[in-house]
């Protein structure tokens, strides 16, 4: 757990050094993150609607054996997986807590880097979201990069 926190803190410091977004961009990014967290905590499948249709989803999964697998999932498939997983997550009370969120400019988008704590699995890992205005002006998630354990 201590190593995971050091990795998250180091990554957060690196991201913070890249520059602050505009006040408006940060406010919209915070609003999107807050909606994401609220929908996830409510086990609402509408969280899938926060992803752009062409979003890039990457996950690095580390197994107890030390094996690491990296996967990229197409947005449509990821959205379907979210909708399927919500009832299971609710049944297991699988809740995540987010902390140490840092917002950096990636004009016209904003990159959000947080530490995510899984209450069910009792570990912390980094998650990064690239958010910005979609075709209709509403803000969406265009990239998600995360780490997980089984």
Structural account:
The protein has 150 residues and is of the alpha+beta class. It has one domain: Nuclear Transport Factor 2, Chain: A, CATH 3.10.450.50. It is built from 3 helices and 6 strands. A hairpin with a 2-residue loop joins strand 3 and strand 4. The two termini are 15 Å apart. The N terminus is likely disordered.
- Judging by the overall fold, what is the CATH architecture? Roll
Gross morphology is globular
Biggest pleated-sheet summary? 6 strands, mixed
The total tally of domains equals 1
Strand order of the largest sheet: 2-1-6-5-4-3
- SS content category: alpha+beta
Q: How large is the share of residues in beta strands?
A: 35-45%
CA radius of gyration is 15 Å
Number of continuous helical runs: 3
Walk me through the topology.
Elements: H1 2-16, H2 23-41, E1 51-62, E2 68-74, H3 75-92, E3 96-106, E4 109-118, E5 123-133, E6 139-148
Parallel strand pairs: 1-6
Antiparallel strand pairs: 1-2, 3-4, 4-5, 5-6
